[in-house]
């Protein structure tokens, strides 16, 4: 999952991972870093960016879950990103377990 997630790092059009009701002026965002680690039975995903689109993180996590369960490859994740189409996205990860841990200015 960590290796696949690295395909999301950088400046991209994240339309695939954007909610229909997103009010951002542009779907282009820069994902500075994403780390996927295991802590016992938990998988911890940390993202770093200046800003995110509405449901972007939950959408990326849901898509990464497909990589983790073997139904997608890293290339499938990259293809979903490049599709720029919400229909190419994996399932939306549930909101529980998602925490905003820090904001830097």
From TrEMBL:
Signal peptide: none
Top EC class of this enzyme: isomerase
Enzyme Commission number(s) from the entry: 5.4.99.12
Keyword Cell membrane in annotation: no
SUPFAM superfamilies associated with the record: Pseudouridine synthase
GO biological process, one term: tRNA pseudouridine synthesis
Keyword Cell membrane: no
Top-level lineage group: Bacteria
Alphabetical list of Pfam families matching this protein: PseudoU_synth_1 (PF01416)
Keyword annotations of the record: Isomerase, tRNA processing
Alphabetical list of InterPro entries matching this protein: PsdUridine_synth_cat_dom_sf (IPR020103), PsdUridine_synth_TruA (IPR001406), PsdUridine_synth_TruA_a/b_dom (IPR020097), PsdUridine_synth_TruA_C (IPR020095)
GO function term, MF aspect, one: tRNA pseudouridine(38-40) synthase activity
Catalytic activity: uridine(38/39/40) in tRNA = pseudouridine(38/39/40) in tRNA
Record domain Pseudouridine synthase I TruA alpha/beta: where: 4-105
Assigned protein family: Belongs to the tRNA pseudouridine synthase TruA family.
UniProt-listed PANTHER family: PSEUDOURIDYLATE SYNTHASE, TRNA PSEUDOURIDINE SYNTHASE-LIKE 1
UniProt protein name: tRNA pseudouridine synthase
Organism: Methyloligella halotolerans
């Amino acid at each position: 999952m960590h290796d696949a997630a690295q395909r999301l790092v950088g400046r991209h059009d994240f339309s695939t991972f954007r909610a229909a009701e997103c009010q951002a002026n542009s779907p282009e965002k820069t994902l500075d870093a994403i780390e996927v680690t295991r802590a016992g039975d938990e998988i911890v995903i940390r993202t770093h960016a200046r800003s995110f689109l509405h449901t972007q993180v939950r959408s990326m996590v849901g898509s990464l879950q497909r990589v983790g369960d073997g139904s997608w490859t890293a290339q499938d994740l990259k293809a979903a990103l490049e599709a720029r189409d919400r229909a190419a996205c994996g399932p939306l990860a549930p909101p529980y377990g998602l925490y905003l841990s820090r904001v830097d200015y």
